[in-house]
Amino acid sequence: MNMIEVKFKVNGDQVRMLVKPYETLLYTLRERLHLTGAKEGCGLGACGSCTVLINGKPMRSCLVLTLEVEGKDVRTIEGLKKNGGLHILQRKFIEHGAVQCGFCTSGMILTALYLLETEEKIDHEKVIRAISSNICRCTGYQKIINAIEDAAKEVGKWSY
To answer: How far is CA 68 from CA 21, 34, 100, in A?
Structure first.
């Protein structure tokens, strides 16, 4: 099978590599770049555990071919850490006990990050709507919702 060169950014770093035409971004991230935050849950784009941000938007990396990110910016959970510290969403997930098995956590956090970065004001309904496409089998969602709402309050985006 012919390999094809692709260039894109991952967490701010330029990447240039040869990939197979059918190689998914999830495979590339996990197996070739050793960024294991995105998890393979269903492999069908239904669970959200493989969610990454592509040009700032949440996308299921199991459904995206690596060739499709040519020239784009990919952000994974590993890219949230700044100056060795946790992102506010990561901190709030820990504080609220919203991390149990951890399988859905990176997808939930990146989905919530999109919400925080794109919405002027956030309320309970927006949080519910945002995470509705991510499946969690452990927490019952309430702790996740509380963590996201608390983060929105701390950054001044909460709408009462």
So the answer is: 10, 19, 33
Distances (CA, A) of 52 to 17, 92, 97, 129, 148: 19, 19, 22, 18, 17
Residue 4 DSSP label: E
Report the 10 Å Cβ neighbour count for 78. Answer: 16
Output the pLDDT for position 138.
Answer: 85
Summarised one tens digit per residue, pLDDT across range 34-91 is 999 999 999 999 999 999 999 999 999 999 999 999 999 999 999 998 778 999 999 9
What CA–CA distance (Å, rounded) separates 111 from 15?
Answer: 23
Backbone angle region of 122, left / alpha / beta, with phi > 0 → left and psi within -120 to 50 → alpha: beta
CATH fold group of domain 88-154: DNA polymerase; domain 1 (1.10.150)
Ranges of each domain in the chain: 4-77, 88-154
Q: At what angle do helices 142-154 and 88-95 cross, to 10 degrees?
A: 140
Taking Cα atoms as reference points, which of 53, 44, 35 lies closest to residue 111? 53
pTM: 0.94
Q: Which residues contact 138 (CB under 8 A, 6 or more apart)?
A: 100, 101, 103, 104
